[in-house]
Amino acid sequence: MQRQSNIELLRIISILMIVIHHVLVHGIYNAVNNSTLHFIDSFVIYGVNIFLLISGYFTINLKWKSVINLFWICSFWKLFHLFYETYIVKVPHSLFEWIAKPLAIPFSSGGWFVDIYILLLLLSPALNMALTRMNKKELSLTILLISIFNIVYCWGVGRENNTSGYSLYHFVYMYCIGFYLKSSSFSYKYPYFGIVICSIFTFILYLVLGGRAFSYNSPFVIIGAICIFTALNKVNIQSRIINITAQSVLSIYLLSDGGLFSKNMYQLYNEIIKTSANTVVGNLKIAGIVFGICIFAILLDRIRIIIFKKGIYPFSEYISYKYYHKIYHK
User: Fold this and answer.
1) Confidence tier at 172 by pLDDT (50, 70, 90)
2) Contact criterion met (CB below 8 Å) for 162 and 154
3) Where does the sequence pass through the membrane (predicted)?
4) Mean pLDDT of 298-324
5) Over the range 201-227, which residues count as b (16 or more CB within 10 Å of their CB) and which as e?
6) Rounded to whole angstroms, how far apart are CA atoms 297 and 301?
7) Is residue 66 within 8 Å of 124, Cβ to Cβ?
8) Lesser CB count within 10 Å: N end or C end of the chain?
């Protein structure tokens, strides 16, 4: 099945939004914390929610190959960070760590997003079964009830331990909305206007509530993500370059936000802002470094993909064949 380049472009946009948000929060804010940067942040806070909407729109098809591939991506970048820390910044790691960390992906992928997404992946068969059995009215009622819990109870009232959307139930919530968008053919008439309005209201909320305005379960962050998804879903494009690049979006995330590598980069961004003649020059330098990191992740990921296609997946298929052959031919 040929990939839809508009959705693949949306994946790329979502990961770039996540990267920019992290650069701002973990890097630049530590040096210059002003309203202009928070205004920019209000336009890029949608990345995580967009990614979850895509998952729900197309539904996660839990297959052996996709599970092995996800674990291999996480393991590959665990190995990269171990290599960087051991041989570049000279932080020693024992042989046990070199073996255990890449194999501990189901329990610790190295980032909260992937940890929770793995849980969503494992939950997806039951979730898909429940959603497909609902009619439109039942699905609408379910989303309304989850909205009350996730937005009003968790984000609005703050009566849950995790009030910012860093949770499995928020992931399930966005997945359900994505499924609803597909099943109901729902779309905003003026999505670009919605994006601007949601971003402005997010910034206004920041001036009143502070960082809570950038929570993933904020109503404006949710609606803004839906607007962006709707806008790109209408675009009819087909590009091999976009499709190939989109294969590496998770790798970009795992490189740019993992281990000492990301901490060193954030410290570098901090120093660049502090030592630059003006903020514009500093931001341009940071943008160049971030672009270079993304290109590096995409190029290195081609090696990861080749290893998977030529080695890991055929080997896993062979082991699987031998196992079932042994079970059913005793």
Assistant:
1) very high
2) yes
3) 12-31, 43-60, 67-84, 104-127, 139-158, 164-181, 190-208, 214-232, 244-262, 282-300
4) 81
5) bbbebbeeeeeebbbbbbbbbbbbbbb
6) 6
7) no
8) N
Query: What are the tokens at 236?
Result: 């009819």
CA distance 289 to 80: 19
Measured between alpha carbons, how far is 61 from 132 in angstroms, rounded to an integer? 13
For the chain, what's the residue count?
330
Cα separation, 121 vs 250, in Å, equals 15
Helices (H) and strands (E) in the chain, counts: 15, 0
> Amino acid identity, residue 318?
Y
DSSP, residue by residue, 75-107? HHHHHHHHHIIIIIS-----HHHHHHHHH-TTT
Burial class (CB within 10 angstroms; exposed 0-12, middle 13-18, buried 19+) of 198? buried
The one-letter amino acid code at 229 reads F
Do 246 and 6 meet the contact criterion of CB atoms below 8 Å apart?
Answer: no
Q: How far apart are CA 193 and CA 10, in angstroms?
A: 18
Tokens of 172: 């399930």
Tell me the average pLDDT across 150-154: 89
Burial (Cβ within 10 Å: 0-12, 13-18, ≥19) of residue 41: buried
Q: Please tell me the predicted confidence (pLDDT) of residue 196.
A: 95
How many other C-beta atoms are found inside a 10 Å radius of the C-beta of residue 299? 10
Tell me phi and psi for residue 148, to 5 degrees.
-60, -45
Q: Which of helix, strand or coil describes residue 234? A: coil
DSSP labels, 247-268:
TTHHHHHHHHTSHHHHHHHHHH
Cα separation of 202 and 21, whole Å?
Answer: 14
Cα distance between residue 165 and residue 179, in whole Å: 19
What does the block give as tokens for 315?
């080997």
- Secondary structure of residue 133 in the 3-state scheme: coil
Distance separating alpha carbons of residues 11 and 211, to the nearest angstrom: 25
Helix axes 279-307, 5-22, angle to 10 degrees: 130
Q: Is the dihedral of CA 292, 267, 80, 88 positive or negative?
A: positive
